[in-house]
Amino acid sequence: MDIRTLKTKLFSYTCFVLSFIAMIPLVLIVFYLCREGLARMDFSFFTETQPAPGVSGGGVSNAIIGTLFLTTISTLIATPISILSAIYLAFSKKSKITEMINLSISVLQSIPAIVVGLATYTWVVRSMGSFSMISGAIALAVMMIPYITVNTVEVIKLIPQTTIEAAYAMGGKFSLIVFRVIIPTILPGLITEQRSEMKTLPKVALKVENLSVWFSQNHVVKNVNLTVHKNKIVAIMGPSGCGKSTFLRAINRMHDLTETARVSGKILIDGGSSDILEMDAMSVRQRIGMVFQRPNPFPNMTIYQNVISGYILTGKKLKKQEKDQLVEENLKKAALWDEVKDRLHSRGIFLSGGQQQRLCIARSLAMKVETLLLDEPTSALDPIATTKIENLIEKLKDEITIIVVTHSNSQASRISDYTGFMYLGELIEYDSTKTMFTVPKNKKTEEYLTGKFG
């Protein structure tokens, strides 16, 4: 067990214990109230109104009716405003208005809800000149709007794009599409939170924002933006010299090794909370592995040592049993165990090209990487070895996220879930592989796929 896993488990156990301790007084209070109150309570407690101050007895009927009225009115105010705001944010181009709405939502979410409610209630009361149920309903609605809006935006993202495209293809007006397609589709998800019928988007593994790479004054990769989902295969294709490999090497900080290289933008992981370009390079490479175009097992190491070389080179000590387990487990994942199990202590460079490349993949997997970068991993291999690598890549996506650079359009179409097309340092198009290869949106993509250049 590594230090990071140990710390995570320790933190989880501590939180559980503290939560349990904090619950004890609450449970005792509830138990006391139930024991003392239930014996004295009858049905009239729920039907009678609250008496005047200082008078004993009475009930809570007015409180129950008031609460129902308050929540109903606030919901009727907040829901349409939130849904329309979410639709506007989801389908409008970025503008000052969308920025203002997003900023307002962020501000309201960052302030404790009780503070927002009290401030709104005070402002409404001062404006109306008196206390009223409507004042409370408006205050509660303002507290609800940012949360409903954010949730609605997320539900809208789950609507299959083909559903919306089909509505447009029918010649529908946007206003009617909103009220006859979008809102009826998202309401079940908002009300019941049962979203299984809608296409659930996978979690984000990595998000690239405005990524640029220079070598001296040469701008090689230009403002690339894309999102990579967990446990998916992303293929990056394009003609030679278009910046594919340069983009890939930026993800695990390989350009740090080149004095003339400069990288700008963001590469976000951990749900957007960590920027790879601001992290320690060594920790990045231990989480994001890379396999290069030509197989490169360490020539001075055996097959066994190559698999655990990440631990050797980072100074991490392992017990013999842990080493044996890592070697067998990852050679099996790389579909190489049966071929080399009887010669683990032979040099890795004596393997065939395809076997060496699978050994390099096993070497990365042994570090328990979250994302694996493959830079044209089959370009130096024969067709049989290429097929084995492709089959391996498809199996590995159940455990990790994979980004592969390839010159082969057919390979991209065979193995990837999403494909990006780069040309002259720019990401021209990025979409699901099925869409990219059947109905590309950009003419330049279509020309490349049909062999007019490249």
Rounded to an integer in angstroms, the radius of gyration calculated over CA atoms is 29 Å
pLDDT averaged residue by residue: 83
Number of strands: 10
The CATH top-level class label of the largest domain = Alpha Beta
Cα shape? globular
- What percentage of the residues does DSSP assign to strands (E)? 5-15%
CATH hierarchy: architecture of the largest domain: 3-Layer(aba) Sandwich
How is this structure best described in words?
- Strands 6-7-8-3-9-10 form a 6-stranded mixed beta sheet, sandwiched between helices. Strands 2-1-4-5 form a 4-stranded antiparallel beta sheet, covered by helices on one side.
- It has 2 domains: 61-157, no CATH class; 204-449, P-loop containing nucleotide triphosphate hydrolases (Rossmann fold, 3-Layer(aba) Sandwich).
- It is built from 19 helices and 10 strands.
- It is globular, with a radius of gyration of 29 Å.
- It is of the alpha/beta class and 454 residues long.
- Helices cover 54% and strands 15% of the residues.
- The chain has helices at residues 3-38, 44-47, 61-91, 96-110, 113-128, 133-157, 161-169, 174-192, 244-251, 281-287, 303-307, 309-313, 320-333, 337-340, 353-365, 383-396, 409-415, 433-438, 443-449, and strands spanning 204-215, 218-229, 233-237, 261-269, 274-275, 288-291, 371-375, 401-406, 418-423, 426-432.
